[in-house]
Design brief:
By secondary structure, this protein is α/β, with parallel strands linked by helices. Helix content is 45%, strand content 21%. The structure holds ligand C2E and calcium ion (2 copies). One calcium ion binds next to loops.
């Protein structure tokens, strides 16, 4: 706009960028104040290997922001901003409640074995009243707590491991399960599976996608699943896209898998059409 033969440095703090960010923040605030109705929960099936055959055993809840202004916004585009603004507490509670309601519905209509996984932000988990909010969801939905798994990442434990262990113990004391998400991407992963009370380890998709070309990734997935198996912890591999990967994990002690090979995240309606 300023004409040819000139250059300018890109500046993330330039007025236009800041203005755009502020605009999106306002829209997000408004969406939260409007009872989070624009935040839609999608469900990606989680498959369990039953006699080697992948069978749906539930789903991971993944939020999308269905914004009239921005269209369908994926979590990578708004979660960190929502965390900074603390809006994640309301959004996360909405997702937790919706997911628990859905799962209870599946359990009552032909699939008592289905479970639901919900991602928790560190901001959400470290609120002083998180456990009360979890209780409210359990009471309000009457879901069997065993069917509700809360997914946390290693970043949670970095600051205050002791506090984190207490929290996870309290969650499990209510009967809910805990999964460690994105395993292998943190910087002291093995220490976390040694110290954190866990029911499931989810191996990050980076290892799964490299498994067929990279010997290390193959050995990593195999070894972590054996370790988890001996510790009596479930293993879920994420990001399964090709049948070659299914063949390979079939030989390891992996019991759960998730990925586009089986299905992408679906609206509640589509998930129920296909899997209920
Ligand atoms: P995540 O928890 O690791 O979720 C898995 C992500 O991988 C999802 O992206 C899913 O759509 C994608 N995915 C699944 N299978 C495949 C595959 O085979 N190949 C590839 N390339 N990708 C696959 P999505 O839905 O965009 O979510 C991104 C991240 O946003 C999630 O990563 C999670 O960390 C976060 N997130 C999603 N929903 C929530 C939420 O309700 N609360 C919080 N705090 N975070 C959330
Ligand atoms: Ca997850
Ligand atoms: Ca993950």
């Amino acid at each position: 706009n300023k004409g040819k033969n000139r250059f300018e440095f890109y500046d993330a703090n330039s007025d236009a960028v800041v203005a755009e960010k502020v605009k999106m923040e306002q829209a997000m605030r408004k969406a939260v104040e409007d009872d989070c109705k624009e935040f839609e929960v999608y469900y990606q099936p989680i498959m369990e290997f039953v006699n080697g055959i992948p069978t749906c055993c539930g789903a991971e809840a993944l939020v999308r922001w269905n914004s009239p202004e921005y269209g369908l916004v994926l979590p990578d585009q708004f979660i960190s901003q929502a965390e900074q603004l603390k809006l994640i507490n309301s959004i996360g509670q909405h997702v937790l409640l919706e997911a628990a309601k859905s799962c209870k519905h599946w359990n009552d209509f032909g699939h008592p074995e289905y479970k639901v996984n919900v991602n928790l932000s560190v901001v959400q988990l470290t609120q002083s009243d998180f456990l009360d909010k979890l209780d409210m969801v359990l009471k309000q939905t009457a879901i069997d707590p065993q069917n509700l798994t809360l997914e946390v990442t290693e970043s949670l434990a970095i600051n205050d491991m002791e506090r984190m262990i207490k929290l996870l113990d309290a969650i499990r004391a209510k009967g809910c399960r805990v999964a460690l998400d994105d395993f292998g991407t943190g910087y002291s992963s093995l220490n976390y599976i040694r110290t954190m009370p866990l029911d499931t380890i989810k191996i990050d998709r980076a290892f799964v996608s490299d498994m067929n070309s990279d010997h290390f990734s193959e050995v990593f997935v195999k070894t972590i699943s054996e370790l988890a198996d001996s510790l009596d912890v479930d293993v879920c591999v994420e990001g399964v896209e090709f049948d070659k990967q299914v063949d390979m994990i079939g030989k390891f002690s992996v019991n759960l898998a998730q990925g586009f090979f089986f299905d992408k995240p679906l609206t509640k309606e589509d998930f129920e059409k296909k899997y209920l």
